[in-house]
Design brief:
It is a single chain. By secondary structure, this protein is of the alpha/beta class. It has a single domain, classed as Rossmann fold, CATH 3.40.50.300. It is 41% helix and 16% strand. Strand 7, helix 9 and strand 8 form a beta-alpha-beta unit.
């Protein structure tokens, strides 16, 4: 089983879109997938057609130990997905977790009984580096996937994120790995998108996925219909890109050297120790 967390403290970079798109593509292939919505904004929940206000049992209950996670999941036969939904109540978990013993591993404990029932668990993190995100990182046994928006400001937080991952690895979860970075919202019409993509690849090397997710109207429309792009517009540029991304993930996970490669990446957590922050080099400008 693989467990990935989708993390970036910057909002609007494509974390939720990537988590549900990968999940839906895996589901189409007959792979058993659980999506965990660990964000109080409940975007993954609403993007899969569920009104967060209607959620009476979900990630909040599982996280604080009120109910087993198995009692809180929802199944979608049409999308071939299982969801541990979120609701605004999850915001209260950050306060309640503070007084709990081993609070950073609450999500890991909640998900452990489900491990034999799924091939992939995909955790959608909130756009912050708080306790909910730390829980998601500790639960991400197979590593983190970092969506990176192809805009200049998206670069500024990456060094901070890498330092946070390094701290979590040092103090809580030594096996924490970066599975890869995914370039999102790429606009081929602008020079800036190309420069940002080149900067990220130059800085992080083979940790960056080859697939690039373009800006696409269908991708933006899909959440309003409560559907992932695989169900809404699978042959759109965004749908095709996420299909290619899924193939890249599966190929990497199936490779005999995949596990050791992930561990090697974990050992260096690229970017965490560099002296020159992203964006301070020549070649990345603020204009299009």
């Amino acid at each position: 089983m693989r467990t990935y967390a989708f993390v970036n403290q910057k909002g609007g970079v494509g974390k939720t879109t990537t988590a549900i798109s990968l999940g839906a593509e895996l589901g189409r292939r007959g792979i058993k997938v659980l999506i965990v919505d660990c964000d109080p904004q409940a975007n993954a929940t609403s993007c899969l057609g569920i009104e967060p206000g209607s959620v009476t049992e979900g990630a909040y209950d599982a996280l604080i130990g009120r109910l087993p996670a198995s009692d809180c999941v929802l199944h979608s036969p049409n999308l071939k997905l299982t969801l541990l939904p979120s609701s605004p109540a999850l915001a209260g978990a950050q306060i309640e977790l503070v007084s709990m013993a081993e609070r950073e591993s609450a999500l890991q404990r909640a998900l452990r009984p489900l491990s034999g029932h799924f091939d992939y668990i995909l955790i959608d993190c909130p756009p912050s580096l708080g306790l909910l995100t730390v829980n998601s990182l500790v639960a991400a046994a197979s590593g983190v996937i970092i969506p990176v928006q192809c805009e200049y400001l998206a670069l500024e937080g990456l060094s901070q994120l890498m330092q946070t991952l390094q701290r979590v690895r040092s103090s809580l979860f030594p096996a924490l790995a970066v599975r890869g970075m995914l370039l999102t919202m790429y606009d081929s019409r602008t020079r800036l998108s190309k420069e940002v993509a080149d900067e990220v690849r130059g800085h992080f090397g083979d940790i960056v996925f080859k697939t690039v997710i373009p800006r696409n109207v269908r991708l933006a429309e899909a959440p309003s219909h409560g559907l992932p792009i695989a169900a809404y517009a699978p042959n759109s540029p965004g749908g095709i890109a996420y299909r290619e991304f899924t193939e890249e993930v599966l190929e990497g996970d199936a490779a005999p050297t995949g596990k050791s490669a992930v561990r090697e990446r974990a050992n260096r957590l690229p970017g965490s120790e560099t002296s020159a922050p992203l964006g301070d080099r020549d070649g990345v400008s603020h204009g299009a």
